[in-house]
Design brief:
Strand content: under 5%
Oligomer: single chain
Order of helices and strands: HHHHEEHHHHHH
CATH architecture: Orthogonal Bundle
Radius of gyration: 17 Å
Number of helices: 10
Number of strands: 2
Shape: globular
CATH topology: hpI Integrase, Chain A
Largest sheet: 2 strands, antiparallel
Helix content: 40-55%
């Protein structure tokens, strides 16, 4: 599995028509998946209350219960500022569309007010990949890999990436991370002087 470079992520996001009825939701969905590294099933099942406080602001931490995580190992995922802005905009989007913003309501809604399914998310991202004419496969899982690689490229610790992704073994995390072309160029330039 490959990861997408930041320019490819921008192309994928640029393929979303923000004026379409659910364009803003789709844009925020792709960005949120990339910024958090969540599995598609974890993202699909998110409720407003998990990411948004009763005081009307995005949370700093997402507490994933064991029941929604792979192999029933819960974890805590930090929500960086970009992810928090996504949450705030999603809540506003849901309010404008007449969707519930109660704590138990879905963060990502479909037209009939229910949770956006895993299959729907996969299909949406596939369609945007085709519109963006990306050579690499772009899936929710690719966005997870891309987040891990980007975090390491920015100097993040592999153990932090491991905890965010919810891997028990460091070797699993290392399989997720790929050396990006830009970091290879940067490292090669260091050698050249």
């Amino acid at each position: 599995m490959f990861s997408l470079e930041p320019a490819q992520i921008r192309r994928l996001l640029g393929a979303v028509n923000l004026r379409s009825p659910f364009g803003q939701r789709d844009y925020l969905l792709i960005l949120f998946l990339y910024e958090t590294g969540l599995r598609v099933g974890e993202c699909s099942a998110l409720t407003i209350g998990q990411v948004y406080t009763k005081k009307g602001q995005a949370r700093e931490w997402l507490h994933l219960t064991a029941s929604c995580c792979k192999r029933y190992r819960g974890r805590v995922v930090p929500l960086n500022r970009v992810a928090q802005v996504c949450v705030e905009k999603l809540v506003k989007f849901n309010l404008q569309r007449g969707f519930s913003v109660a704590p138990e309501a879905p963060l990502f809604c479909h037209r009939k007010h229910g949770f956006l399914s895993v299959r729907s998310i996969q299909k949406l991202i596939k369609e945007y990949r085709e519109t963006a004419d990306l050579d690499l496969l772009a899936t929710p899982h690719t966005l997870r890999h891309s987040m891990a690689t980007s975090m390491l490229d920015c100097g993040g610790a592999v153990t932090s990436v491991q905890k965010i992704l919810g891997h028990r073994k460091l070797s699993s995390t290392q399989r997720y991370t790929h050396t990006s072309r830009s970091s290879m160029q940067r490292d090669s330039a260091k050698l050249g002087g």
